[in-house]
TrEMBL record:
Superkingdom, taxonomy of origin: Bacteria
Name of the protein this chain belongs to: Abasic site processing protein
GO BP term, example: protein-DNA covalent cross-linking repair
Family classification: Belongs to the SOS response-associated peptidase family.
EC class of the enzyme, as a word: hydrolase
InterPro entries in the cross-refs: SRAP, SRAP-like
Keyword terms of this UniProt record: Covalent protein-DNA linkage, DNA damage, DNA-binding, Hydrolase, Lyase, Protease
Taxonomy of the source species: Bacteria, Pseudomonadati, Pseudomonadota, Gammaproteobacteria, Pseudomonadales
EC number: 3.4.-.-
Ranges in a coiled coil: none
Molecular function terms, GO-annotated: lyase activity; peptidase activity; single-stranded DNA binding
Length: 205
């Protein structure tokens, strides 16, 4: 499962988006429950908000059961996700993500692309509390051998994913696309520590 990712570098164009937080800090080890950046469409323009990584629909009573991931195969049917899939689609920006492989002793891998930034498909919810609107999000994942990875979107797919008028059949085609090419390298075990959030997370094995 894609339980950790990193956002430590961004482009000037990304930093110029409405909502980019003043004093945004780089992060090398973001995990479920963290506050992360979420990109949404507001009319023809994209904007950013901070969101909790763990979807929190307004009707959810048990906040210990906020899903960080949503399976691409079941978005249309799952009550937790189907309305968000239809109405509230977003993007999670990242530089790459971590993957643990192996049986007896799992090894961490860093996966990235030739582009400086990746965009993961996501769903989001907004809920008001005492005059403030809080956002939460779930990362959409797809099967990758025996693992699950974020659903990565290219520029055209990002536009169609965010557009409110994209037909269902086009969205479903995006959900099964596995054409993105990733680079990978094996890492030391430093990233295994969820409290570590620095460039040493990417130390090669």
């Amino acid at each position: 499962m894609s339980g950790r990712f990193a956002l430590f570098r961004w482009t000037p164009a990304f930093a110029a988006l409405p909502g980019f937080p003043e004093g945004q800090q780089p992060h090398w080890n973001l995990a479920p429950g963290a506050q992360i950046l979420l990109q949404r469409a507001e009319g023809e323009q994209r904007s950013l908000v901070r969101a909790r990584w763990g979807l929190t629909p307004p009707w959810l009573k048990d906040l210990s059961k906020t899903p960080a991931h949503a399976r691409a195969e079941t978005l249309v049917d799952q009550p937790m996700f189907r309305e968000g899939f239809r109405l509230r689609r977003g993007l999670i920006p990242a530089n790459g993500f971590y993957e643990w492989r192996g049986t007896a002793r799992k090894r961490p891998y860093w996966l990235s692309s030739q582009d400086s930034m990746l965009y993961f498909a996501a769903l989001w919810e907004a809920y008001p509390v005492e005059g403030h609107v809080y956002f939460s999000t779930a990362m959409v994942t797809q099967a990758a051998a025996s693992l699950r990875r974020p659903l990565l979107l290219n520029e055209q797919q990002q536009q169609r994913w965010l557009a409110a008028d994209t037909p269902l059949d086009e969205l479903q085609a995006i959900l099964v696309d596995t054409s993105q090419v990733l680079r990978e390298r094996v890492l030391s075990n430093l990233v295994n520590d969820p409290k570590l959030d620095g460039p040493e997370c990417l130390t090669p094995a």
